[in-house]
Amino acid sequence: MGFSCGIIGLPNVGKSTLFNALTSTLSAQAANYPFCTIAPNVGIVAVPDERLHTLARLGRSARVVATHIGFVDVAGLIRGASIGEGLGNQFLSHIRSCDAVAHVLRCFDDENVSHVEGSVDPLRDAETVETELMLADLENLERRAGPLAKKAMAGDTEAKTQIAVIEQLIEVLRAGRPARVVHFDNPEYVKMQRQFFLLTAKPMMYICNVEENSDSTGNVYTAQVISRAKTEKTSVVYIAAAIEAEMAKLQKRKEKQVILNMLNPRETGLSRLIKSGYHLLDLITFFTVGPKETRAWTVRRGASAMEAAGVIHSDFKSGFIRAATITYEDFLACNGEQGAREAGKVRFEGKNYKVKDGDVMHFLFAH
């Protein structure tokens, strides 16, 4: 799976409608009242990548296997969620296992759709949810601090390091800033911070749920969100969740394409969301191509060839010898692997080679 993304936000902002659209299912109940999602819905969807089908055609592959992304639809949060209000903080734990957070904000007016706060104000909503997440993180760290402080006073070296990290994080959270703004230079501190699974340490992007006519241009509400996102150095995606949900009901690809041709940009909200998510987490895709299948794989940017081999199978990593590598552009220009070999475009890379987006790789390993 490429990565997992938790879909969060206040009740009635369109989270479940978006989830239905993204996963092309109607499994998540979407209704006009708070807390209609009473358990986290998890959907696994294929990552759209036109390169995959092009490679499969050139490689005459019997099947095509995309990399996947998991979406977790979490129940709506309200003021006081961190101390048990509404459905309580039981659902906050579902966010901890996600790689990133997609914060859905309502950016449309509709008197027929109620708002838990009584009016549409995406900046207020963003602040409400972020505050609840910070309070949950603060409670988490303060609960850890007591026992660790005692161990540190007794001379426990690891406890002293953990306390040093926790104190810096607590200071930031008490100042009303999320844990993601803290950047430790000490690798050991970075490792420990990850072990705390802080909600506000996760990369986050905003999803503006807009009306149909604002899907490509945005509106006055999205302009406000963009301004906030710039200060936080994160991304914003516009999605008309209702339109995406309608498209999800269509069974035939041709029918979906007719609608896409009417939209600007001509791609689904899923495509835009995944692109933003990949950018947010700094992910790249590499491919394996053969007669049996062409498959896409996801790794972090900067991953080594040996790490990429391990994504496919642990044996590939432990017995790694080298990786025959062709760029996507060379694979196309040479009309496949054989042409690339004849043109001298196949490189044999060692275990420390940094994988590039679009690399077509074949791993040689000792059995």
What would you note in describing this structure?
- The chain is α/β, with parallel strands linked by helices and 367 residues long.
- 41% of the residues lie in helices and 19% in strands.
- It contains 14 helices and 12 strands.
- The chain has helices at residues 15-23, 50-58, 92-96, 122-153, 157-174, 187-195, 220-232, 241-249, 253-262, 269-281, 305-312, 314-318, 328-333, 337-342; strands at 4-8, 41-46, 63-65, 68-73, 100-106, 204-209, 236-239, 283-289, 293-300, 320-326, 347-349, 360-365.
- Strands 2-4-1-5-6-7 form a 6-stranded mixed beta sheet, with helices on both faces. Strands 3-9-8 form a 3-stranded mixed beta sheet, with helices on both faces.
- A hairpin with a 3-residue loop joins strand 8 and strand 9.
- The longest helix has 32 residues, at 122-153.
- The model is unreliable at 33-38 (pLDDT under 50).
Features:
367 residues, alpha/beta, 6-stranded mixed sheet, 3-stranded mixed sheet, 14 helices
Give the averaged pLDDT, no decimals.
85
Number of beta strands: 12
Instruction: Note the quaternary state here.
Output: single chain
Cα-atom Rg, whole angstroms? 23 Å
Q: Helical proportion?
A: 40-55%
Number of helices: 14
Strand content: 15-25%
Q: Unreliable segments (pLDDT under 50, ≥5 consecutive)? A: 33-38
Large-scale geometry: flat
Major sheet strand order:
2-4-1-5-6-7
Give the class from helix and strand content and strand pairing. Answer: alpha/beta
